[in-house]
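To whoever is on call:

I kicked off a structure prediction for a single chain this morning and the downstream step that reads the tokens threw a length-mismatch warning. I double-checked the sequence; it's 307 residues and nothing unusual in it as far as I can see. Pasting both halves so you can look.
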Amino acid sequence: MRDRARITDQRVPLRLTKMWRTIGAMQHSSPARQRFASLIRRPDPQVPLAEAALAIAWEDQGGPDPHGCVAHLDAIAAAATQRVAAADDSGLRVLALNSYLFGELGFYGDPGYQRNPDPANSYLDRVLERRTGLPIMLSLIYLEVGWRLGMPVYGLALPGHFLVRLCDPEGDHVIDPFSGGATWSMADCERQIASYYGEAGPELTAMLIAAPGRGAILARILRNLKQTHMARGDTTRALAAVERLLLLDTSDPGELRDRGLLRLRAGRLNAALEDLERYARQNPAATDLAEIKSIARGMVERVAQQN
């Protein structure tokens, strides 16, 4: 089995191997990565979502620690407290918060995010500063402010769109922060699911409308960033996104494969081969295995010719 799984028996020079491992260790020791890893080690309901999202932004952007943006969320919630508290029921409280966030503060969804991928749309500090971003980031702000106000809100991670849901005895409200707080019916949610999965049965629908954990929300942010960085040709940041995805779920075979391929692209051959061999061992029936083996062999051969 070991021989079948091994992608190649060639090895890169020891000098380069040591250099790549040193570079990898330096990246992993960054304060932002350490903070992210520390935060996500907590039980999922206790993970501070905004702080972890800010750690993602900090690692990608560098510069000063953006942790102070938590105080910005505190200030938004404090300013909305009286108007939300004055509302008589949950529907009116949603309207009051919507009026403040999307009316007075002017948060809005970036309509060109699919046409022109911009990582700033996934960085919480930049979204707070620019007041625009992806659906999941505007929803994260809504959640954080709502939690501070005592509202029973949670995420609704539909395929292709992220929403906020408020459930209490007074009513069930689905809110779209990307569209200025527009409300969705459950029929709208089912149509969104059907647009990706066709006729979804009740079990799949129930699974998709269940509240995602905080780790799952962070994973979705990182997957968005991974795709954005890859579209922009930024291998270093795409790789960093995958590394953090694997911190969230070490067993994800797709991310293990992608880390290997991105390490190949970044020139970290030995680490890449370790990832791809592990992927091959753990997923012997994978449909892309022959292609991955071919890519790995070709990369090693080219590097060997250059040394």
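Update from on-call: the warning came from a stale cache, not from the record. Cleared it. Sanity check on the structure: The chain is about 65% helix and 10% strand.
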